[in-house]
Design a protein that fits this description.
The complex is a heterodimer of chains A (396) and B (231).
Chain A: H1 3-14, H2 23-35, H3 39-47, H4 52-80, H5 84-89, H6 98-107, H7 112-134, H8 158-188, H9 196-227, H10 231-238, H11 245-256, H12 266-303, H13 308-336, H14 341-345, H15 353-362, H16 366-395
Helix pairs in contact in A: 1-8, 1-16, 2-4, 4-7, 6-7, 7-11, 8-16, 9-12, 9-13, 9-15, 9-16, 11-12, 12-13, 13-16, 15-16
Chain B: E1 2-11, E2 14-22, E3 27-31, H1 38-46, E4 53-58, E5 61-62, E6 73-76, H2 88-96, H3 104-116, H4 132-146, E7 150-154, H5 162-179, E8 182-187, H6 190-195, E9 199-204, E10 207-208, E11 212-213, H7 214-219, H8 223-229
Parallel strand pairs in B: 2-10, 3-8, 3-9, 6-7, 7-8
Antiparallel strand pairs in B: 1-2, 1-4, 4-5, 9-10, 9-11
Helix pairs in contact in B: 2-3, 2-4, 3-4, 4-5
Classes of the chains: A mainly alpha (396), B alpha/beta (231).
Chain lengths: 396, 231
């Protein structure tokens, strides 16, 4: 969910509090971990009479060990590089992040040296976090199954109550801000400035392009790493985590500026930056299942001479359809709501939807901003849903 | 002729040597204790493991530089012989054409192979809807379709019951007769080796011995084989 929208929603609800809204992303990433445990292992667990604690110890803990560090890392870095939130709240000196400082250095002071310095600090912090989290990842090694489905027995007793409570709270946590966006956005829909429509079109273009590029790149890296684990591959898939939209944007701004007016390349740069930024997430989402696919079916495919396009068509795409769809959806939603590089480059005619929302908020046109937010959140969700459902249908 | 020419395979600290050859159409069981290196030998012939020394040659040609899928062989693994997301027909089709652009003729061939292996009518199913025996049959049907001159089997029937196993071995003999393939089958069980009606290469102490007649080997086993058989 685009951070800008969540913030507008949260402002409406709580006044002004900063809250991470990575909950859905985290939940889905962990859920994929559960889905990746072959049914055969669950059957074995059932036949051995595993209770919840044994299942946790022997199946779920190894799975979480593989999945959680990535999830934690993703969320931590989203917070670290979270810029849209603070920007929209107009963060004063007490609520400034490095990201915002970079933005101010470029946009207001045009102090490029300071921006580059701040970008360096940001990279250092993020890289430290990334390295720390990566050290914790352990492959779970469940082996391959037959794609059977074993229903996991529903828990009984008090666990049902706690489950219901957790689900209820999570739903409230997400629905209330969204509801607020909808309530406040609907009346403003009538008097939206005409700039919103082309901005929405540009946002969709950026989202689709970067989702496509990032998914392709992440799949390539994950496949290469699954056959021959190389530090170089892992590093190139992880490196973007050490940066942020503004760090990359600043760098590209410095490169482009002597040769061309930055405005002219605003959209390609945004696509590029978003591709690079979603790459680590997609790689994290794809690599466990790619490894499992390679371990389970790599030899069979090799022995049948399944290479190149046929291998992609008959092995990789069908087996990875679910994480590919999910990943592409995440990438599309992330780029859709991105308010990073675009803020440095865009002028009036290159603005994406989040930028228009920010401008509307800056001009105190809250009704229109809320309405545009409603459009943004609807589009983001539609894109995510289309990719994710497409992947799930292809996997079925 | 398949030649294992002063072949040395290494896998971590594990080493395995073999120096013998087998003619086209031979049937050889590879028997020996767990961890002796039976599967390692098959992996090397199939191209999943490069020899540290020596050569694997087929009809005089060194297979070293030939990638797995282009070697003149079909391999059946212990499990995961079928892609679970594809139908039986698609799984068989991959053995003929990796891009699955099957001609009418190839489809007829697949139907014939299904008939032949007792799977008529099961073509549209997915592997999860097959029994263990049916899955083995499907893998054998693919070997039949591929008709490559070498057929490697890595305990593919280990999970089946005795009667079913006998059926599979009979079917395997038919497939081998049809395709004229040289069969190398890893097994734990002397009964399987006998049922293959050929020779047996015993693997122990880091060495794959040259194959000898199975009946003779079991009638008068050397010390290592006696230990293995528990006699």
């Amino acid at each position: 969910m685009p951070a800008v929208v969540a913030v507008l929603g949260l402002i409406a609800v709580f006044g002004r509090t900063g809250i991470v809204n990575s909950l859905p992303l985290a939940v889905r990433m962990i859920l994929h971990g559960w889905l990746a445990i072959p049914a055969e292992r669950l059957r074995l667990a059932q036949s051995l009479g595993f209770g919840p604690s044994e299942t946790f110890r022997h199946l779920e803990r190894p799975m979480l060990r593989e999945v959680l560090p990535g999830v934690l890392l993703v969320i931590l870095l989203i917070c670290l590089t979270s810029f849209a939130v603070v920007l929209t709240l107009g963060g004063g000196p007490s609520a400034t992040t490095i990201e915002l400082a970079i933005y101010q250095a470029v946009r207001f002071d045009f102090d490029l040296a300071r921006a580059a310095g701040l970008a360096g600090v940001q990279v250092l912090i993020s890289a430290t976090v990334a390295v720390a989290a990566w050290g914790l990842v352990r492959p779970a090694g469940f082996g391959a199954g037959l794609d059977r489905t074993t229903p996991i027995a529903a828990p009984g007793g008090w666990r049902r109550v706690t489950d219901a409570l957790a689900l209820g709270l999570a739903t409230l946590f997400l629905v209330v801000p969204l509801g607020a966006v909808a309530l406040r956005g609907l009346p403003g829909l009538a008097d939206l400035p005409p700039s919103v429509l082309p901005a929405a079109g540009r946002s969709i273009l950026v989202a689709l392009m970067s989702a496509f590029l990032a998914t392709g790149a992440a799949l390539t890296l994950a496949l290469a790493a699954a056959t021959r684990p190389l530090l170089l591959i892992e590093a190139s898939a992880t490196l973007p985590l050490a940066t942020s939209g503004l760090v990359l944007g600043t760098g590209l701004f410095l490169i482009v500026q002597p040769f061309a007016p930055p405005m002219t390349v605003a959209l390609p740069v945004t696509i590029l930056v978003n591709t690079a930024l979603s790459l680590p997430f997609l790689y994290r989402i794809l690599s466990p299942e790619t490894r499992a696919m390679q371990a389970g079916y790599g030899r069979l495919a090799d022995s049948l001479g399944l290479q190149g396009w046929p291998r992609l068509r008959w092995l990789v795409l069908p087996r990875l359809a679910r994480p590919l769809g999910f990943g592409a959806g995440i990438a599309a939603a992330l780029s859709m709501g991105d308010l990073g590089a675009i803020t440095l480059f865009a002028g009036e005619r290159q603005a994406t939807l989040p930028l228009v929302i920010q401008q509307l908020t800056g001009a105190y046109r809250t009704e229109a901003a809320a309405a545009a937010s409603l459009i943004l959140v609807t589009l983001s969700f539609a894109l995510f849903w289309a990719c994710d459902a497409g992947g799930r249908r292809a996997a079925a | 002729m398949l030649q294992l020419d002063r072949l040395t395979l290494a896998h971590g600290s594990f080493r395995l040597t073999a120096d013998w050859s087998a003619a086209a159409g031979d049937r050889i069981a590879i028997m020996g204790p767990s961890g002796a290196g039976k599967s390692t030998l098959l992996s090397a012939i199939a191209g999943f493991l490069q020899p540290t020394d020596g050569q694997i040659r087929w009809q005089g040609q060194d297979l070293g530089p030939v990638p797995g899928g282009q070697r003149p062989l079909t391999i059946l693994f212990q499990d995961q012989n079928l892609f679970p997301h594809l139908t039986v027909v698609q799984n068989l089709g991959l053995g003929l054409r990796p891009d699955l652009r099957l001609s009418r003729d190839e489809r007829l061939q697949i139907d014939a192979a299904l008939d032949r292996t007792g799977l008529a009518g099961l073509g549209p199913r997915r592997p999860a809807e097959l029994s263990g025996g049916q899955a083995s049959r499907a893998a054998l049907a693919r070997a039949l379709l591929r008709a490559r001159p070498i057929l490697l089997l890595d305990e593919p029937f280990a999970a089946l019951g005795p009667a079913l196993r006998q059926d599979m071995l009979a079917l395997l003999r038919e497939v081998a007769d049809d395709t004229g393939a040289l069969v190398l089958m890893v097994t734990h069980d002397p009964a399987d080796a006998l049922a293959l009606q050929g020779r047996t290469a015993f693997v122990a102490d880091g060495q794959v011995a040259a194959p000898v007649d199975t009946v003779q080997l079991l009638a008068d086993p050397p010390a290592a084989v006696r230990d293995y058989l528990g006699r």
